[in-house]
Amino acid sequence: MTPDTRILVTGAGGFIGGWTVESLWFHGFRRVVAGVRRWSRAARISRFPIEIVLCDVLNMDQVEKATEGVDAIVHCAVGTEDVIIKGTENLLKAAHHNRVGRFIHLSTINVYGEVEGEVDENYPFMRTGNSYGDSKIEAEKLCQKYVDRGVSVVVLRPTIVYGPYCTLWVKKFAERMRSGKWGIFRGIGEGTCNLVYVQDVVNAIILCLQSERAVGEAFNVNGSEQVTWNEYFCRLNAALGLPPLSEIDTNKAEFASTLVAPLKATARFVVNHYGDMLTRIYQRSAVARRIMKRAEESMIATPGKAELRQFSRKARYSISKARSVLGYEPRVDLNTGVQLSAQWLHHESLFHIRSEESEVPI
Q: How many angstroms separate the CA atoms of 198 and 205, rounded?
């Protein structure tokens, strides 16, 4: 790969996709093509003098047009089951038709299921009923199908990717900690939290673009440190400048999870079917706003059953293969990554300490 290599990044408006676009530019790749599902997703990446195209992966016309004349595709787009499976198939078809030289597919360690112990790339796929993980299994099967047809596919299976712009593992947990209802889970939170900083994932992508040995292979992408979920919670909480987390009893956590589960399901149904009406009520009534915020905070601060299982699992995803084949080595230690994540939250005014009267930015 050279600075003239034309690289399409799908899902460029998202967390990993946005980081990939920016990093490729800083690594000297001047012909990056950022694929976004809608123009409103291009705000962050539009700071760079790059080509931005509409590329809804479910729209075959857009996919064909976006992939014309590109040398490589980095597939970061994610969404519904259809987006993950059919969208990946559409891109693979276009890559095959347009003779794209390299196809990097971002998968997930969720394809291994709810495992324990040391897990390498030889571990079999395991369906769990979780839509995201099961859909990624199907997408990987499609990748193998197109490897057999001559497409130079490389699959990356990142662990828990965190860092600035991360909603799921950074912003969401910061909101939970701010609520004062989150804590250390005694007997549950001692499972392994396999964190990998987003820049390390992007470095793995760049290595895959440059390595011929990577073609047709799958690689775990993990960080270098093994910490528990409780330790991650404590480190992020401290970086945010919040009071120390209290200890939450196992039985209470499990009971609360069971109690809140039907409420969460009801809330999803109401939002999906009566979202416009709720918005109007929220905008017009201060009392309604307070009630809705309190209800939302309570549900957000209560982990689901699947989360509690995740917090307790002791699985470690090996990166020996990525080290030996790609030369991959995680560079960002956990303390640095957590501090950078907290700084992003503060800088973007996405995190506030709640007072009795209002929310005041730190």
A: 11
What gap in Å lies between CA 280 and CA 37, rounded to an integer? Answer: 28
Q: What is the pTM of this model?
A: 0.87
Tell me the C-alpha distance between 179 and 291, whole Å: 15
Count of all residues that appear for the chain in the document: 362
Please state, in angstroms and rounded to a whole number, the distance separating the CA atoms of residues 219 and 157.
6
Which conformational region is residue 178 in: left (phi greater than 0), alpha (psi within -120 to 50 degrees), or beta?
A: alpha
Cα–Cα distance between 261 and 276 in angstroms, integer?
24
Residue 212 token pair: 């011929």
Q: For the residues of 136-175, what is the DSSP string, one character each?
A: HHHHHHHHHHHHTTT--EEEEEE-EEESTT-IIIIIHHHH
pLDDT digits (tens, 9 = 90+) for 125-134: 999 999 999 9
Helices and strands, number each (H, E), in the chain: 12, 17
Other C-beta atoms lying within 10 Å of the C-beta of residue 228: 18
Residue type, 17: G
Q: In whole angstroms, what is the distance from residue 105 CA to residue 95 CA?
A: 12
* pLDDT reported for residue 273: 58
Q: What is the distance between the alpha carbons of residues 220 and 112, in angstroms, rounded to a whole number?
A: 11
Q: Are 223 and 319 in contact (CB under 8 A)?
A: no
